[in-house]
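The following block was generated as part of the benchmark described in Methods. Ligand: TNX.
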Amino acid sequence: MRIISITSLAILLLFIGLNYGCSDNKRPAVVFPKTDLAESPLIPMPVKMSSTSDAFGLDQYTAIKATGTDPGFEEVAEFLAEKIRTKTGLVLEVNPGDPENIDRMIYIQQTKIPGARGKEAYQIEIKKDSIVVNAEHPEAVFRAVQTLRQIIPETSNDTLADRSIWVIPTGLIADEPYFEFRGSMLDVARHFFSVEEVKKFIDLLAYYKINVLHLHLTDDQGWRIEIKSWPKLATIGGSTEVGGTGGGFFTQEDYMEIVAYAAKRYMTIIPEIDMPGHTNAASVAYPFLDGTGNPLKLYEGTRVGFSTFDTRRDSVYAFIDDVVGEIAAITPGPYLHIGGDESHATRPADYVHFINKVEKIVQKHGKRMIGWDEVATADMDSSSIAQFWASEKNADLAVKKGMKIIMSPAKKAYLDMKYDTVSKHGLNWAAYIPVDTAYNWSPERYSEGIPRESILGVEAPLWSETISNSTELEYLAFPRVIGYSELSWTLPEKRNWEGYRKRLAAQAPFLDRMNVNFYRSDLIDWKDSKFTYKEIPKD
Ligand code: TNX
């Protein structure tokens, strides 16, 4: 009896010591419930995550401190503060002058990560009274901030103290991407989407660490980017869209606004001018471009493969030089996409002649050319990139030419494919792609002819024949695009459907809060109640 009571006294003293002795502020310390970091429903799953089974309390007495020579570190810290404010209502100071009222700190610091393979490697150490984010580059800190946003629970614990506290589990995360190129594409040509709609898509993609948005800017049904030296492309070529519901185009200022918005989220915009096919809208605006000889009129249907530029006319290349030059000048990213798909109205020899010449024009303007897989049939430079969508034969050719490949197999990665026969939007020419099929494949093992070393990354294209606004876009893109983020970021051995399925279910509160019209596939047990960490039972 006596021994037991001495032991309990010792435990009590230790408890008081731990809770009050170490705290040098005026507020009584809080006893946090112990939670498990490994339970965090993170997408994409990080390389390493280990739990120390304790907790950090995020509350109004928390601040953020950013250090680093690059101003990007402080900018990303401000971004984090803003996202914490919209999620929790907490207004955290960044680099507080007076630490008087601060109990706990989130440090964002510039540190070299040993063994990092690229610019996006980061580490996060979460302890009881601090969170330390280490990274060498601001873009890595930006990815780390997405991890933190996902770790902060949707709801606070209001029973621990006189204020709301968001309980964050302690532990260590060490992370970097498997593929450097993690993308999606939006077709703004078949139906036009506004700058605001594109920005919302960018925000959602960035939350899942996607770092590329490819904009399909031109097609038979519409030309969507102002070209100052050829103004009728936008004013005439941009006046229609599928279904006869109007059209529209981005001014160069609009486009630059999108580029800048994406850049703040460390996302590269890839502009695509699709040619020599898919060019009806351009040829209606400037008929000398046309190589079919057929009567020209604006087109609002969904057929493909009927238009072509005149590939043997010098003035066509002078025109392309102007267009590529203007777009390259307002595109800071390294890539320019020239389409090159489904040129059924171009003779094969003319096609090769055309792609060879256009590749040189793109290079002259300082960009790396990307084309759909058909471009591999031309004499491509090994610095050019083939986007695999349909033909393994073309992909094979591209690999043999030393080109890098972007993996967008239509049967697995096309966001415009219907989920099933009752899908409200979408097409089904390649496949039906339910949420599990979209996730259950490996880009690096898809085709024997496309080895891991040749793969630059993964891109999920969203063609817009059947969608015309954010609500419809979100129905097709979400949740499938979240799975593509994991296929491109997470190590192959860390991906598995059962684990992913549970983590995906926990995205519902975020998607709801962001007002995303995601498809509630019944393969997923969507969590309608807000996600909170379960307490680890005391033993
Ligand atoms: C094929 S994929 C196309 C597009 C269509 C899409 C519809 C590719 C390079 N070309 O023109 O919009 O199918 O799924």
